[in-house]
Structure formats: C-alpha cells, structure tokens
C-alpha cells in the first residue's frame, strides 16, 4: 500500500505561519499598535508561563525525591518565589495554563487581571506590560480565543532557541503591518547578523554594556546569545539601556525579563538627550543602532550640555553627532569601547566637520566600516559601523596583545559583500554569513595586533590603515573611498588590442552573414521563388 502523503496541516507550523493566522484573526478587530501590543503580550505570557510550569514540575519532582509526601507541604514550597532560580516566578492569575482554561467570554477580563498580577509581583515584571490592554481593545470572545489557540503553539521547546523570539514577533509586525516602519521613528529591528558583527568588534564579555536607544532590547538579547556562543558568561555583564517610546520601552522590559537578563532601563521611558536615566555613569561597552538622521532631537536646554562641551554643539537638525558625543561621554575613561551604526552622511557632512576633526585629533575613532545596502527590513540604505575606543595605546586585551594604534584609523569597505540573499522575503535583503563576520573581525584584530605595520596594512578595495596626517590632508573626512585603493580597471585595458579584436569579430560576422544570405537565395530558387 502506498505511503500516505503528510498533509500540510499536520506539519509543525512555522512561527511565520502562526503569526500570519493571528494577523488574519485580528485583521479588522484592532488598530495596528493594539494588534502589536496584544500579540506580543500573549507571546510573553505564553513563554514565561511555559518556562515557569517546567521549573515548577522539576521542583515538584525534587520534593518527592527528597521524601515529601504531603501535597499541602509541597504546594507551600512551590508557592515560594525564592525557590525558582531557572525561571521567573509567575503569579497564579498570570499562568498560561490557567488562562487557557478560562471561558472565552471571560478572557479579556482575566487577561487584564493577569497583567495587574504581573505588575504587582515585583521588579522582574514591573513595567513590562500595558495595563487594561485586553478590555480596552475588547475583542470578541471567539476572536481572542482563536488568537490564544494560535499563540499556544509557540512553545519555547520549539522556538526557544530563537536568538530573540520577542524580536522576531516584533520584526514580523514591522514587515507585515508596517507599524511606523521608518528608521527615524525608532520602530526598527536590527537583524542578528549585524548585532553579531558589532559584538565581534566590541567584545562585551564582562563589565557593563549600554545602549542609549535600546528599542525592543533585541541588541541585548542577541548579544547575550553571542557571548554564550563565545563561552562567555552573560551573568557577568550588567546591561543598561534607555528608550523614549513608551510602548517600545515596555517591549524591551518584556524581552529582557523573558530571557532572564538582569537589566537597568531606567524607571520610565524618556529621551536620552533631555532626560538621561543613567546620568553620571560610564560603561565598558556600548552597542547601539540609533535612529538615522533624527531631526527632532534638539531642545534649547541642551545648548550648553556638558556632553558636547569639548567638541561643539551638534547640528540642531540632525542627531547623528549628538548620538556620537553622548556615547563618547558614556564610555569609561582609559578602556571603554563603542560600536554603533550611523547613516553614511555622518562620515563627511560639512555641518559637523569641526566636531569630526576634534574627534579624530582626540584619537577617539578606531575604525570605520561601511556596510552593504539591503541589510535591514525597513530601509535599503548603506550604513556605517563606527568603533570608538578610549584606549588605542595597546597592551593586553581579551587574551590578545595589542600594539599602539595612536594616530591611526582603520577603514573597511564591505559594500560588495552582498552575495548572500535572504530567501522568502517580500523585499530584497542580504545578510552576513559567519565566514564574512569572521573575515571582517580578522582584518580588525590583525590590524590591532602586535607586529602589524599600520603604515603598510592594506588590501585594495577592502581595507587600509590611515595615519592622522593623511586624514588632515583630506580635511578629516571619514569616507573610506578617499583612502582605500580602488583598482581602475579601465586604465588596464589595451584599447588597441580590444579594437583589433572587435574589428576582427565584426569582419567574421559579416562574412558569415554573406554566406548565409547566399544559401538562402539558393534555397529559394530551388523552390521556384527566383531565377537561376
């Protein structure tokens, strides 16, 4: 008997399939922002609930193995939040298994009760959720039940290995619903390969890590995965961040709480420029992807801010250099290192020429890496990875012996690294492979290493180390093409030889055409269409 073909509906659904089904159920039932908040909150409840259930069951088995037989005694033990070390303690009203058994007509109210219980349960979940979310949206009972049934399929056993599950859901909304999907608005998701590239340059293996515009927290979550992959210990890293948008701030809290990453995001959402939630603190590492070319950042109260006292006031109509100077002010003296993305215009714009000159003369810029187009979902522009370093003098660093790079800047141009397209996307998108990330980092580490001669460190069309005298001669522009050698292939062409070969080819084609014409005329005459 022929083997039965597996039906499509029997196959394990992908995350995208589940989210698509949720989107269909929510199509005409809520605003875009409400859909996002509702679905992300349900995914959050599902994820923390399942993790809690597993940890609780593990603790129950330990109680029994240790000779406890009284169910009341066991339950008393399980109801103590301090007993849970591998999962956050979820209060009873917010537990997913309980919510799934709730009658559909009562779901909206019970879900809101769950959010209140989380908010009141302690610092772990405080500020993570939007209270009164479900009753304010008021989905019909059958709709909210269908959405929950779909979310119930998102088991951490299957999807928990995602670098950033909440980020993946958030990313789906950016692509499918286009919620404020512009880089300037701040609704932006940094793909994991770019985070890995930044982390590989910055190496945040210990100490404090800061992101002044942390968005959904995906940079932290994905960086944690990178640190673990490099046999580092994320528990040795203290995470600090800030986010201006209230919904995105909640999302970051949710994301980090779900992953068990200890964090300090400030007591509320706030603008990094006008209300620095970590005033007075400096950090070992900074990783960031600020809004590109942000226009509405300036406030008159910032005119004499200490962050730009040594460099000058950044252009009021563009925040690029305000971000740079803010991050520089947050780097720990003598050892701090920052890796962040900016639009390419910051490399040579005239409005910030004086600030850029002072940054270079102060020897804060270590590397400039121009990246390919099409790396992001919501913009196709090419962007630049900047690396600032408070210590270019050399010495021992992360098990490497570094030479002095004072007065040097490494330039890299990776715009041609576009041979790895991402499949299944609605728009063109490329990503870095692991081999490409390793190649870029190897170029950087070799340049830093003892024994390398910075004066001759170069490969045409890819990288070059440049001394400050040459930067000065080029009016302190940081555009890599001004320094990296690009081969002029036109000048290598022997035009006489090409013209001779072309003339010979044309002559041969004309000869063949004449022969073919003769054959055609002869054939037509044979058929009686002409005279011999």
Report on the structure:
The chain is α/β, with parallel strands linked by helices. The chain is 40% helix and 10% strand. The chain contains 17 helices and twelve strands. The strands form two sheets. The protein has a ten-stranded mixed beta sheet, sandwiched between helices. A two-stranded antiparallel ribbon has the order 8-9. Strand 1, helix 11 and strand 2 form a beta-alpha-beta unit. About 3% of the residues have low confidence.
Average predicted local confidence, pLDDT: 86
- SSE succession: HHHHHHHHHHEHEHEEHEHEEEEEHEEHH
Strand residue content: 5-15%
User: What's the total helix number?
Assistant: 17
Main sheet overview: 10 strands, mixed
Report the count of strand segments.
Answer: 12
Helix coverage percent: 40-55%
Rg, alpha carbons:
30 Å
Please give the alpha-carbon distance between the first and last residues.
72 Å
Q: What would the principal axes of the Cα set say about the shape?
A: globular
Strand order of the largest sheet: 3-2-1-4-5-7-6-10-12-11
Poorly predicted regions: 4-9, 177-187
Helix/sheet category: alpha/beta
Topology:
Layout: H1 15-25, H2 32-65, H3 71-78, H4 96-100, H5 107-119, H6 133-137, H7 141-151, H8 156-159, H9 165-176, H10 192-202, E1 207-211, H11 218-229, E2 237-241, H12 246-259, E3 263-264, E4 285-288, H13 320-330, E5 337-343, H14 353-361, E6 365-370, E7 383-389, E8 395-397, E9 400-402, E10 408-413, H15 434-448, E11 458-459, E12 463-467, H16 468-473, H17 495-526
Parallel strand pairs: 1-2, 1-4, 2-3, 4-5, 6-10
Antiparallel strand pairs: 5-7, 6-7, 8-9, 10-12, 11-12
């Amino acid at each position: 008997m022929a083997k039965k073909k597996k039906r499509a509906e029997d196959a394990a659904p992908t995350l995208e399939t589940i989210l698509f089904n949720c989107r269909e159920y929510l199509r005409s039932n809520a605003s875009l922002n409400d859909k996002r908040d509702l679905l992300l909150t349900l995914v959050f409840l599902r994820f923390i609930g399942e993790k809690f259930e597993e940890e609780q069951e593990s603790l129950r088995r330990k109680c029994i193995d240790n000779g406890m037989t009284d169910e009341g005694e066991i339950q008393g033990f399980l109801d103590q939040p301090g007993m849970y070390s591998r999962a956050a303690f979820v209060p009873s009203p917010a537990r997913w298994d309980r919510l799934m058994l709730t009658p559909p007509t009562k779901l909206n109210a019970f879900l809101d009760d769950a959010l209140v219980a989380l908010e009141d349960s302690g610092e772990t979940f405080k500020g993570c959720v939007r209270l009164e979310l479900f009753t304010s949206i008021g989905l019909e009972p059958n709709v909210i039940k269908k959405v929950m049934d779909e979310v119930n399929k998102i088991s951490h056993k299957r999807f928990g290995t995602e670098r950033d599950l909440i980020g993946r859901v958030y990313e789906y909304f950016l692509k499918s619903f286009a919620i404020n999907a512009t880089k300037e608005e701040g609704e932006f998701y940094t793909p994991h390969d770019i985070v890995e590239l930044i982390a590989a340059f910055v190496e945040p293996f210990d100490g404090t890590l800061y992101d002044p515009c942390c968005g959904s927290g995906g940079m932290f979550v994905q960086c944690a995965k990178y640190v673990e992959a490099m046999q580092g210990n994320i528990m040795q890293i203290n995470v600090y961040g800030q986010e201006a948008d209230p919904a995105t701030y909640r999302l970051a809290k949710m994301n980090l709480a779900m992953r068990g990453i200890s964090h300090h995001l400030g007591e509320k959402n706030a603008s990094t420029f006008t209300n620095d939630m970590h005033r007075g603190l400096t950090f070992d590492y900074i990783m960031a992807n600020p809004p590109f070319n942000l226009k509405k950042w300036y406030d008159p109260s910032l005119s004499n801010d200490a962050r730009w006292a040594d460099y000058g006031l950044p252009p009021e109509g563009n925040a690029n250099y305000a971000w740079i100077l803010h991050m520089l002010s947050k780097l720990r003296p003598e050892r701090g290192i920052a890796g962040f993305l900016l639009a390419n215009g910051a490399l040579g714009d005239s409005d910030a020429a004086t600030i850029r000159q002072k940054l270079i003369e102060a020897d804060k810029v270590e590397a400039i890496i121009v990246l390919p187009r099409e790396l992001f979902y919501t913009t196709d522009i090419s962007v630049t990875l900047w690396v600032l370093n408070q210590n270019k003098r050399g010495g021992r660093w992360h098990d490497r012996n570094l030479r002095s790079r004072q007065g040097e800047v490494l330039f890299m141009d990776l715009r041609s690294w576009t041979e790895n397209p991402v499949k299944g996307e609605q728009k063109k998108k490329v990503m870095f492979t692991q081999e490409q990330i390793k190649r870029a980092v190897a170029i950087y580490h070799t340049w830093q290493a003892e024994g390398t001669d910075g004066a001759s460190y170069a490969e045409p069309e890819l990288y070059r180390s440049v001394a400050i005298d040459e930067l000065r001669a080029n009016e302190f522009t940081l555009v890599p093409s001004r320094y990296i050698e690009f081969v002029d292939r036109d000048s290598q062409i022997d035009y006489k030889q090409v013209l001779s070969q072309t003339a010979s080819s044309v002559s041969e084609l004309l000869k063949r055409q004449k022969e073919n014409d003769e054959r055609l005329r002869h054939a037509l005459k044979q058929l009686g269409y002409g005279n011999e």
